[in-house]
Amino acid sequence: MKRLVSRVALAGLLMGMSVLAVAEGLQSQVAPAGAKVFIESPADGATVDKTFTVKFGIEGMKLAPAADAIPGTGHHHLLVDLADQPESDKPLPVTDHILHFGKAQTETTLTLAPGKHTLQLLLGDQNHVPFKPAVESQKITVNVQ
Q1: Which of 6, 29, 57, 129 could form a disulfide with 40 if both were Cys (CB 3.0 to 4.6 A apart)?
Q2: What is the pLDDT of residues 7-48, one digit of tens each?
Q3: pTM of the predicted model, to two decimals?
Q4: CA-based angle 78:110:60, to the nearest 5?
Q5: Residue range of the domain that includes 104
Q6: What is the domain count for the chain?
Q7: Between vectors from CA 130 to CA 112 and to CA 137, what angle results, nearest 5°?
Q8: What is the CATH number of the domain that holds 133?
Q9: Among residues 74, 75, 111, 115, which one has the least CA distance to residue 96?
Q10: How many Å apart are CA 76 and CA 55, to the nearest integer?
C-alpha cells in the first residue's frame, strides 16, 4: 500500500512539473526590434467583391510554420471584425474572427457578407502566442459589395 501511494505521489509530481514546463513554454516571446507586419492588399477603405484576396507582408522577421520552434520566426493570424484585441499572453483561439495561417502562408482568399469589415494581422509564435511587444498591423476597413 505504501509503495502504491509513493508511486501515485511521484506520478502526480512529474505530471505537475510537465504542466508547468508546458505553461512556461507558452509565455510571449520578445519580438525582434523593428519587426512589423502589414496588409499589402487590399488598401484601407477599398471596395472589394464578396470574395477577395488579402496579401500579408512582414519585415524584420521570417515566417515559419507553427510547429517549427525557430527563434525569431512566427506566422500570421488575420483578425476579422474583432472588436477587442485577444489576450496577449495566451495562444490565440481559432474562431470565425481569428484566422490562423500556421503553414506560414502569405495570403488568403476571404468571402465576407456585404458591408464594412475590419482586417488586422497579428503575428504569433510556434504556439500561436503573440509576441511582446505585439507585432501587429494597422487595422484596415474594407467595403464588401
Answers
A1: 57
A2: 444 334 334 333 333 444 456 789 989 999 999 999 999 999
A3: 0.80
A4: 35
A5: 3-144
A6: 1
A7: 50
A8: 2.60.40.10
A9: 111
A10: 11
